[in-house]
């Protein structure tokens, strides 16, 4: 293993904007993207708030020149991945390029449409609406769009998926197997996840309040976020201007429960600690933590306990951005990786919206305002998933 | 250091096979009855088993056969044991059953199993495994890919042992092949960890010479 | 009350896949969670589904669960107090 892994480009689409610059503007204005469901029918339509990407499928197809059968997960993915590649300025066809995309629902949105007719009549429904169901298919559609023909892989480890995609991409570059990797994730809202998370009774009927004592659940969101990772050689040859690099990452297994995190947050503690060890940094070197902070009782207490254990009284600026975007599941690690890079590039930190009272057991007070002209050299981003799959990643500015 | 396959198990056609020897077979009753009876046949008390989905139950049973009441896994530090599992049908079996419940009331207990990697989580919880883990969705059993990935995981210094294999289920159709690979060399009966060997064990019900 | 508790035990075993237990193994006042039967958060959610499906009682706030689901008796008392008339 040798050399560094640089972040040459970023791309993002979520409830608060369809580009990196629009996202930054929304943070600056403290404009949350949480609202009512408008893109599909649901019995929860006016009950459960969500973080929808404002563009409907028709508009996305129009902008991206894609056919109507392309799934929303793939459309969002193409949108963000194109922005990432464009902003990198790297000619991805010139290098050994890979695409690693994370998703948990894949083409579920189209399948849900197909099912209704099909169940009534096996001859009804258009098969072209289910051929893109599989998670891996959304990655293939994005790869085709970008012209990536080398290494293509899909990761689904629930809500930590995207961080694991970026970690895998970094390893492939470090080991000299690839030169360029477009890594991140995409997930569209679907009835499947809405009803599923609702059955777990962890959806808040109000806009979510991560890390607040009064929190009572998460809001689901949707979107996609990708980073373009490049080797030292590519950075030099392509004249990449970015000074951000992937400095460390870790993935741990909580081995506690299918969905709940261990109360003491042993998996999340281990992930943060091991990511720090890889980067050679001390906890105090981190300037900003982008928390997983879903807003559920269990996650925020468990993550908060782990952060408190790592830092004690003196902890860095930190916030959960899910009060803006909702929890975008498999895409969240990619979207929040883009936020982390934005913090490094623009020397700013993002507010933890709707925070009022600290969780009594841990007493942490997150960042409450958008703050610029802050010295941000190292950012840690947490993503923890069902199955006890915990990941942390550190981005640094050199 | 050479890698050795020290233990292997197979579940197919409602038959549990450990190191090539039939441990339990259950043709009567439903497939779910077979799974629950298999646990009893292995003499294991683990109430949480009954709450698992079929994939997790199969992975659990296969791993129990590997461990066979010994300290083979617990003898290692938790972070030194890895787990690599693949299948063809992801969590589709549970997805379908969960979908059925959404017609009346969505079942939380089923929803938590609508991810293909939960089988890994259940095995980790049972045996306290905290090492590298991966769950692949592949078109079919692929001995070469399994061998290559496990070899890569075992190449790291921290990993001393790896439970690996195939755990696939859709409806009553099931196909399980699990094995344990270890770095220690003192196992006289260890088989060489090669793709050919894995293919042979998979095809021949886990018997080395082809008898089933 | 006795009949309701007997019914509940059967329904709980069925809904939570407690195949290692028979109704008579569950005491009326035995703790259901952690120390007692060892049920977990997902089981609590299935109990909420059970109340809705069998007794048409909707529990809106899962945080009320621990109080109501202490034992078979507390569930039975809750059902009697909240039965839709």
UniProtKB/TrEMBL annotation, chain A:
<protein>
    <submittedName>
        <fullName>Beta-ketoacyl-[acyl-carrier-protein] synthase family protein</fullName>
    </submittedName>
</protein>
<comment type="similarity">
    <text>Belongs to the thiolase-like superfamily. Beta-ketoacyl-ACP synthases family.</text>
</comment>
<dbReference type="InterPro" id="IPR016039">
    <property type="entry name" value="Thiolase-like"/>
</dbReference>
<feature type="domain" description="Ketosynthase family 3 (KS3)">
    <location>
        <begin position="1"/>
        <end position="397"/>
    </location>
</feature>
<dbReference type="InterPro" id="IPR014030">
    <property type="entry name" value="Ketoacyl_synth_N"/>
</dbReference>
<keyword id="KW-0808">Transferase</keyword>
<dbReference type="Pfam" id="PF00109">
    <property type="entry name" value="ketoacyl-synt"/>
</dbReference>
<dbReference type="InterPro" id="IPR020841">
    <property type="entry name" value="PKS_Beta-ketoAc_synthase_dom"/>
</dbReference>
<dbReference type="InterPro" id="IPR018201">
    <property type="entry name" value="Ketoacyl_synth_AS"/>
</dbReference>
<dbReference type="InterPro" id="IPR014031">
    <property type="entry name" value="Ketoacyl_synth_C"/>
</dbReference>
<dbReference type="InterPro" id="IPR000794">
    <property type="entry name" value="Beta-ketoacyl_synthase"/>
</dbReference>
<dbReference type="Pfam" id="PF02801">
    <property type="entry name" value="Ketoacyl-synt_C"/>
</dbReference>
From TrEMBL, chain B:
<protein>
    <recommendedName>
        <fullName>3-oxoacyl-ACP synthase</fullName>
    </recommendedName>
</protein>
UniProtKB/TrEMBL annotation, chain C:
<keyword id="KW-0596">Phosphopantetheine</keyword>
<keyword id="KW-0597">Phosphoprotein</keyword>
<feature type="domain" description="Carrier">
    <location>
        <begin position="1"/>
        <end position="83"/>
    </location>
</feature>
<dbReference type="InterPro" id="IPR009081">
    <property type="entry name" value="PP-bd_ACP"/>
</dbReference>
<protein>
    <submittedName>
        <fullName>Acyl carrier protein</fullName>
    </submittedName>
</protein>
<dbReference type="Pfam" id="PF00550">
    <property type="entry name" value="PP-binding"/>
</dbReference>
<dbReference type="InterPro" id="IPR036736">
    <property type="entry name" value="ACP-like_sf"/>
</dbReference>
<dbReference type="InterPro" id="IPR006162">
    <property type="entry name" value="Ppantetheine_attach_site"/>
</dbReference>
